[in-house]
Structure formats: C-alpha cells, structure tokens
Amino acid sequence: MKYSIHDLKEKTSIDLVIDYSKMIEDSLEILAIEPAKVKADIFFKHDELTMNIHVDVLMELACSKTLKPVPYEMSFDEVIIFGNTEEADFPLEEPLELEDIIFGYIISEKPYTIYHPDANEASFEQEKSPHPAFADLDKIVKK
Prior knowledge:
Layout: E1 2-3, H1 5-9, E2 13-18, E3 30-33, E4 36-45, E5 48-62, E6 69-82, E7 96-97, H2 98-109, H3 137-141
Antiparallel strand pairs: 1-7, 2-4, 3-5, 4-5, 5-6
C-alpha cells in the first residue's frame, strides 16, 4: 500500500490489514501467513514523520529439524521515523511504501529457529563409536 504524505498529515492514526501471502510464495521458512493487523499512531514534527506501529500476525513456519508446519503468533511494537536526518530510519519521500517496510520488520522479528513439538532434541546423526584402540581412553579422560 502506498500512502501520500499529504493524506497522512491529516490523520493521527491508521488501521491496516495487509495480506502478505503473495510475498511468501518463494519462501522456504514461512509456509503460510494470515493477513497482518497493523495499528499506527502518526506524529509530525517539522520535516519528520514518526509512526508508532503495533503488528499482530499469525504464521506457519517450517520446523528447523523436520520441516513440519509450526503455528507461530507474532506481535510486536516498533517506532519508525521517516525524514531526511541521520536519525531517520527511512527517507520521507512521496509515496510511502508502508506494506514493504512493515514486511521487512516482520521478517526481522521472525525467529531463526523453531521446532515442532514432535521434533525431539536428539541429533539425527548416529553417534560414532571410537576405534577399539581408543575405547578405554574415554573412561580415563572423563572426570
């Protein structure tokens, strides 16, 4: 969704529902995503736009071990500053691409690893037994 800066100056808050299902079609980690609910409070100071956003989204992520789908509920708050100063996160340019920016925050907040309840914590590789010549050495070295 593209927003005009002029339109945002007239508002103090916006509520959005953004569908990201097209953006995850090639993703191997995010299997499914429900429409994200975004609430943003808007503040203008001089030539700077500050948005306090709250995002709620339900996703299905791939288990890091078994690749089974794992439901994951994400909720986070973020402050985004648009402007032309060094403190700004993004430039204040016409139009603002809020959909892409918020998706970037969702991707950065997503956990790197997630496990399905069926995935045991044991390694999938069999433990190798030492060469018979060194089998007793293990008893000596431990403790």
